[in-house]
């Protein structure tokens, strides 16, 4: 991150947050417990097939939560914040990438871009939910408007999106430049490991039973992850600025939400709801985020979103540059015609993906 993009306020907070460091013992205990519970729930889903597929689907909910926790551990590894060891982070992250169907180095690359550009209107693309301004939307053709409406519909984001992102796109991410050699190597190695996993399943439990467990589980976990990722940056008073006035500190504290959940839900979701702290200081491990929140007053002086606010934010679609708020399509239609801004002459950036990271 360019130092000139970090305000004195942000630099002071970063110095304080540097005290919250990864710990190998805590990290391995978190990994071991999460992996153990996930494995037990996966086997329970498999056994439930002998009783009822509906029971397997019900068990996909708690199992999906623990798969999401494994993804968040993988996420921390990508930031170098899970353990103090770079090598151990890579080993854990790449192994978990097979379970999460997410090539570790590809995701790490796109997610780093997301952190460096979040809230920047002139650098949208990788790792974002595609967001248009009102002027950009109004400049689109009717067909393109329909495409954007379809893309931003909750069913697309939470049902179609997870299936495409984690089952299809991560197998062949065509948005990755050829010179991203580590990313492409990660894609092929993850695909090879998955092929081996499928072969093992075919020889043991049967490929049909494996898919009846794995597909509902993957889609459940990825839908949860995309929902959390969405509300971390898509809420009424979010932060969007053009590059000349964009500020890293403000993008972190104002453009990344604090989703105020009961402590058990924070634990179940790997503390990813303390997202404003994570965006400001991504080297703070997930298991230290609550302590940082409790001990640093300024980290609590941010807008709090409730779970109800999070679900209501799914209706928000466009950034209104005049009012500096996210608005719904209904609010756009209700505006007086005379107040509508002149359509932007520059077309909006293309959508590269629904979610290039859940976390």
Report strand order across the widest sheet: 1-4-5
Low-confidence region ranges: 338-359
Give the count of helical stretches. Answer: 16
Strand content: under 5%
The total number of structural domains is: 1
Q: Rg from C-alpha positions?
A: 21 Å
Q: Tell me roughly what share of residues is in helical segments.
A: 55-70%
Name the average pLDDT. 91
What's the number of extended β-strand segments? 5
| Main sheet specs | 3 strands, mixed
Cα-to-Cα separation, first versus last residue: 20 Å
Write down the overall geometry.
globular
Question: What is the H-and-E element order?
Answer: HHHHHEHHHHHHEHHHEHEEH
What structural class do helix, strand and pairing data support? Answer: mainly alpha
Q: What does this molecule look like?
A:
By secondary structure, this protein is mainly alpha-helical. The chain has one domain (3-339). 58% of the residues lie in helices and 3% in strands. The protein has helices spanning 8-17, 24-48, 53-79, 86-99, 104-117, 134-138, 142-152, 154-168, 181-203, 207-233, 248-253, 263-268, 275-280, 289-295, 307-312, 329-334; strands spanning 132-133, 258-259, 304-305, 318-320, 325-327. α3 crosses α10 (207-233). The longest helix is centred in the first third of the chain and has 27 residues, at 53-79. The two termini are 20 Å apart. The relative contact order is 0.17. The model is unreliable at 338-359 (pLDDT under 50).
